Amino acid sequence: MLKDVTVVVINREVETPYMTLKSLAHQTVPLDVVVVYDEGRGANWARNQGAALVQSELVIFSDNDIVWESDALEMLQATLAKHPQASYAYGWYMMEGQTYCRQPFDANLLRHTNFISTMSLLHRRDFPGFDETIERLQDWDLWLTLLAQGKTGVYCDHQIFTTSVRPGITFGQGISWEEARRKVMRKHSL
């Protein structure tokens, strides 16, 4: 039976998604899970490969080091249902004792800085795909692409997940944050 939500989980060769899959098994809503190996081709490529397999109405992307709150998908799904004009819903998360992405949706602010995690629930029909040339801040690029198409998000004031600091796209590898920010801003003429 087809579920309303599909979670696309990236599986990297150096780190398996065990804790992510374990936390998804405790969700309060039924869901499908697609695990995609990045094959050394990057997170954006893997996310796009996984998205191509999704048949549900809603999709959410998950890194492989995320511990989901048990009601995360239920809360995001309920928020989207209350705001049918929104293309996606996002909440906040904890990393090393700090709270991130605890900001109501603001299109003008989004044009200046990212405050929305990749781990946000999207209507599959609105998903434009991740730009595989963006090495860092790929989530910001996605939200700006949707904004340029007239699509917006809605904030769910609920903790969605917990994660830890580790080397990867966000911290310590690839291009610098400043260089990535300039690249995304140039692409979107900001």
Write the layout of secondary structure elements.
Elements: E1 5-11, H1 18-24, E2 32-37, H2 43-51, E3 58-62, E4 67-68, H3 72-82, E5 88-95, E6 98-100, H4 107-110, E7 121-123, H5 138-148, E8 153-163, H6 177-187
Parallel strand pairs: 1-2, 1-3, 5-8
Antiparallel strand pairs: 3-7, 4-8, 5-6, 5-7
Could you describe the 3D structure shown?
By secondary structure, this protein is of the alpha/beta class. 28% of the residues lie in helices and 24% in strands. The protein contains 6 helices and 8 strands; from the N terminus they run E-H-E-H-E-E-H-E-E-H-E-H-E-H. The chain has helices at 18-24, 43-51, 72-82, 107-110, 138-148, 177-187; strands spanning 5-11, 32-37, 58-62, 67-68, 88-95, 98-100, 121-123, 153-163. Strands 1, 2, 3, 4, 5, 6, 7 and 8 form an 8-stranded mixed beta sheet that branches. The longest helix is centred in the middle third of the chain and has 11 residues, at 72-82. It is globular, with a radius of gyration of 15 Å.
